[in-house]
């Protein structure tokens, strides 16, 4: 009996092993090791989320359940990518680094509630993310890097970060009214 030739592989990337030190990926025909000290996002993640990896482009890996994006080059040459999240290392939550006692939390809550109007659908449901058109306009203005893609986060430019901080203080500083400067 003769069998036909094998078709193309169904997975160009797969996690082949996880140890206490890191994880191994098979990318095309190359095995890559991601040590947890260089890639800490995977260390405490559930195995099911770590093994769910996608290859959107030949040089880009994406873990949708963890919202982790990596360039293949960052695995091959981690020394070229020295920026590691200080939030993860310190065990802190995400959020602004400004002291929260200077914020009027009621104003913050009101603005977030108002922003939910941007994604309102089905009478009373709203998406937790921000409106795509608004994000595109912020990109066009140079405040954020390109928001398209699967990542759930966006990177602010230097100008965007400065403007964001300025607006946050203006809108939410305690003792400031809506029209006060």
Quick recap:
The chain is of the alpha+beta class and 181 residues long.
In words, what does this structure look like?
With 181 residues, this protein is of the alpha+beta class. The protein has two domains: 13-90, NE0471 N-terminal domain-like (2-Layer Sandwich), CATH 3.30.2020; 100-172, no CATH class. Helix content is 27%, strand content 19%. It contains six helices and eight strands; from the N terminus they run E-E-E-H-E-E-E-H-H-H-E-E-H-H. It has a three-stranded antiparallel β-sheet with strand order 1-2-3, with no helix packed on it. A three-stranded antiparallel β-sheet has the order 4-5-6. Strands 7-8 form a two-stranded antiparallel sheet. A hairpin with a 3-residue loop joins strand 7 (120-121) and strand 8. 5% of the residues are buried.
Helix content: 25-40%
CATH architecture identity of the largest domain: 2-Layer Sandwich
Q: List low-confidence stretches.
A: 85-89
Number of domains: 2
What is the assembly state of the chains in this entry? single chain
Gyration radius over CA: 21 Å
Q: Helix count?
A: 6
pLDDT averaged residue by residue: 78
How is the largest sheet built, in terms of strand order? 1-2-3
Please identify the structural class as seen in this structure: alpha+beta
| CATH C-level name of the largest domain | Alpha Beta
Order of helices and strands: EEEHEEEHHHEEHH
Number of DSSP-assigned strands: 8
Estimated share of beta-strand residues:
15-25%
């Amino acid at each position: 009996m003769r069998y036909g030739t094998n078709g193309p592989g169904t997975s160009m990337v797969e996690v082949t092993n996880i140890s206490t030190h890191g994880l191994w990926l098979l990318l095309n025909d190359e095995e890559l090791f991601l040590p947890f000290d260089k890639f800490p996002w995977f260390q405490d993640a559930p195995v099911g989320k770590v093994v769910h990896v996608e290859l959107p482009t030949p040089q880009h890996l994406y873990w949708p359940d963890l919202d982790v994006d990596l360039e293949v080059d960052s695995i091959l040459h981690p020394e070229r990518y020295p920026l590691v999240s200080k939030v993860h290392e310190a065990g802190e939550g995400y959020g602004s680094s400004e002291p929260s006692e200077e914020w009027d939390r009621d104003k913050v809550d009101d603005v977030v509630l108002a922003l939910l109007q941007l994604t309102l659908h089905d009478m009373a449901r709203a998406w937790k993310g921000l409106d795509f058109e608004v994000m595109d306009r912020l990109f066009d203005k140079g405040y954020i890097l390109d928001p398209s893609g699967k990542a759930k986060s966006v990177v602010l430019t230097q100008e965007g970060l400065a403007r964001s901080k300025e607006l946050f203080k203006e809108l939410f500083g305690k003792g400031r009214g809506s029209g006060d400067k």
